[in-house]
Structure formats: C-alpha cells, structure tokens
Amino acid sequence: MTAAELARALRRRETSASELVDAALGRIRELNPSLNAFALIDDEGARAAAHLADEQLVAGVDLGPLHGVPVAVKDLIDMAGLPTSCGSATSFGATATEDAEVVRRLRSAGAVIIGKTTLHEFAYGATGDRSVHGASRNPTDPSRMSGGSSGGSAVAVAAGMVPLALGTDTAGSVRVPAALCGVVGLKPAYDAVPSTGVYPLAPTLDHVGLFAATSEDALIGYQAISDRPLSLQSGTFSVGWIAPESIAVTDPRIDELTRQFVVSAGFTIDIVQGFPTWQRRQSLFEIFSTLQGREAFRVHEHHLDADADLIDPEVRARLHHGREISDQLYARADEARLELRVIVDELLSTYDVLALPTVPIVAPAVGDRSVLVAGTDLEVRRALLSLTSPWNLAGSPAVSVPTGRLDGLPIAVQLITAPGNEGLLFAAARNLEIALAK
User: Fewest beta carbons less than 10 Å away: which of 11, 121, 208, 338?
Assistant: First the structure.
C-alpha cells in the first residue's frame, strides 16, 4: 500500500502504526538478505515511535498524512543515537548526537523511521555497488544494479519494504536509482530541503530528495520535509522535450519510448534542439565532474590523509583525482554552470516543464563498468549520470517517473521545472501515472 493509502487506513482504524511497523520489519527480514536495501534496522526505535503514534491518533492528535507511516532514511543522514556510516569503513560506528533537520521534520510529521538504507560509499558513485555494507540490488532482477548512490532507499520502496524513503542527489543519486528500480524519485530545488545533519559530498550540488511509489506519496513527503510553500497547479502544460542525444549517447529505444509515452499521456511537446545552446570545449558532464570532484576531495581530504586504505579503491581514485583539480579549472567550470543556469531559465520561461529520459540505459549488471549503447562503448557511471547531472548544475526541481519497461527492466522520464513551480511538476507527474495505469 502507498503512504496515502496507509494514512487513510490508519484513520479508519483498519490498522495501527504498530501493525504497520511489524509488517515492514517482516518484509525487510524476508527480502533484505537478497536485496540489501538496509544497512541498519532500528527495531526498538521504530516500535517505540509507532506506539506513540497510535496513542496520539487515539487521543485525536493528528500530525498529518505521514503520522504512523513507516519510512526509511539514507545512511548519511544523522539520526540521534545511531551510527552514520556513509557506506564507509572510515566512518562506520560514528554515532550521531542529534537528528538531521530533515529527520526532525519527519518525526514532527509523525513518521515512523524503520532504519537506515545502504548507499554507495560517501555517496560518490552512481552504481550502488561500492559500500562497506555491500551492493544494493534491483528488485526487478537482483543481478542488476539498483543505481546509486541512494540505491538502498530506492530498493526499499520498490520492494514494498516502506512506502517512502529519503535519499540525497548530487548528480542524480535519487533519480537514477528511482528510474532503474521503477519508482518515483524527487530532487527538489537546491536548498528547498535543509541539509543540516546530512553528510555532504559536493555542497554546491547536493540536494536532499525522496523516493515514493507514486507522485501523491512524493508530494506528501515533500510537504513534510520542505521549508517552501507548495501551490498545486493543474491544466494544460507546455512541454519542451530535450533531445537526449544533444547531451549524451542514449539508447534510441529509450528516447523513442519515453517521448511517445509523454505524447500518449496527452502532452503536446516541442523538441528542444541543440541543448545546451552554447559551445564549450567541455561537455556538461565534464563541467559537472570538475565541480563535484574538487568539492568532494575537500570534504573527504581528511579521510584520504587518515585512513585511505579503508576506502573502496574506485571511490579513493575518484577522490584523488579531485586533488588534481586546480582553482582555475574549478572557476572555469563554475562560470560554465552560471551560463547553463541562464539557458535553463530561458527555456523555463518558454515551457512549463522540460522532459527527457531519466537514464539513457537500462540497469546494467552489478559490477559492470562499461556498457554498449548504440554501438558506443560507454563508462557506466558517466552514462547513468549524463542526463540527470545538468539539473544539479542548474539547481532545478526534477522528478523521475516510471514509464514502463524495456527488455523487462524499468525505464523512466524526467520532468524539470523552475523553482516555485513544484505544484505543476507533481501535477504533470500524476498525469503520466494515470496514462501508465490505463
């Protein structure tokens, strides 16, 4: 059941928060050994929170639609009294003394936090298979990647362990696993959700986001954790379809299927050619990687100095590369980011929503590091993040919505809008879900 359905069942007294926790824990016990969604399960804390939620609801205290609903939190977000491992042996066992602000808001909304989910070490990877806790695996096919870095949260929702889970998104770390696992993944606008108590990767690119089975649940979650008002919108939307090949090599079947699905859902689209519309020596992904690489190195420099041998070799090599990025290179990339934001702002003054595939490939096998796409051999991480990372550069709110399957694996479309238009984004996502259900 979705979070919204559980909320209604709770208020009809058809179930209790304690029963929901028992069901969630049972599902986790059944599936986690094969899918590895959770790094830590807080049985005691969840049961105590559920008991309190039940007492409050009986007494007529209703904290909102998440009151009594089980949720999960990515394990780089602090929960008081529990370790925050960041998926790394270097941090494993460090106990948080306070809740992250986003956790405090979840608790204030009455949510029952079941535990903490597996992530790619330091959140520095898109594959979800480099962690001290092991790889999280795709529920559609456990031999396939969940995507990352918030893979465990995506798996927890996709497998029905919890209806809602928090993640973080620096380059696509919510939207990529959402797309690969077949759930809704929301990256709010930059700074729309507070990051206090969330271990950073690249502070100017990091966003706290969430996973849900439906856009309705994503809306409920967003309203609980955001500090920005939301005005729901409906009606006819103007949609600019960004040809994904203008950004990165894309499986032409994914381009065709997602674009035709948007049209079949009733949207009239214009094809946006030549995005981005300025010429530079660097690709968008290279610009992004320069900014992320330098910032990630600075965040984790102390880990490299103190215990580099405990870091996964792939993650360690990526951090070492960040050490080599000069101030001059970073400044040039930052200048390019500002130019991109002007272009995106111009597009979003013409169109209500921009759309393109979320990911240009289906989920690769766990451990794969190269993939053949349209006759081109691509590095998996670059391919996975190629269509999502531009919107971290722009800071725009974006949502990934499932649009069916290809070769038996989930595919998704990504919708982007301007900050302040989130209500329109949720409405557009809902229209796609209605079309998919037909």
Answer: 338
Q: Residue 281's pLDDT band (boundaries 50, 70, 90)?
A: low
Closest listed residue to residue 87, CA positions, set 126, 129, 131, 38? 131
Name, in order, each residue with C-beta under 8 angstroms of 183's C-beta and a sequence gap of 6 or more: 154, 157, 158, 211, 212, 213, 402
Q: If we measure between CA atoms, which residue out of 77, 59, 150 comes closest to residue 113?
A: 77
Q: Indicate whether 430 pLDDT > 80.
A: yes
> In angstroms, rounded to a whole number, what is the distance separating the alpha carbons of residues 46 and 25?
9
As a whole number of angstroms, the distance between CA 340 and CA 417 comes to 15
Active-site residue (options: 136, 146, 153, 173): 173
Among 16, 88, 149, 396, the active-site one is: 149
Q: Are 393 and 341 in contact (CB under 8 A)?
A: yes
| 353-357 and 370-373 strand pairing | unpaired
Is residue 372 within a helix (H) or strand (E), and if so which, with residue range? strand 370-373
The angle, 0 to 180 degrees and rounded to 10, between the axes of the packed helices 17-35 and 43-58 is 150
Listed residue (350, 368, 372) closest to 416, CA to CA: 350
Q: What is the pLDDT of residue 273?
A: 78
Based on the residue annotation, tell me whether 74 is a catalytic residue of this protein.
yes
Q: State the pTM of this model.
A: 0.97
| pLDDT at site 374 | 87
173 carries an active-site annotation: yes
Contact 136, 155 (CB under 8 A): yes
Question: What's the CA gap between 270 and 70, in Å, rounded?
Answer: 41
- Active site (annotated) includes residue 149: yes
> Is residue 229 predicted with pLDDT exceeding 80?
no
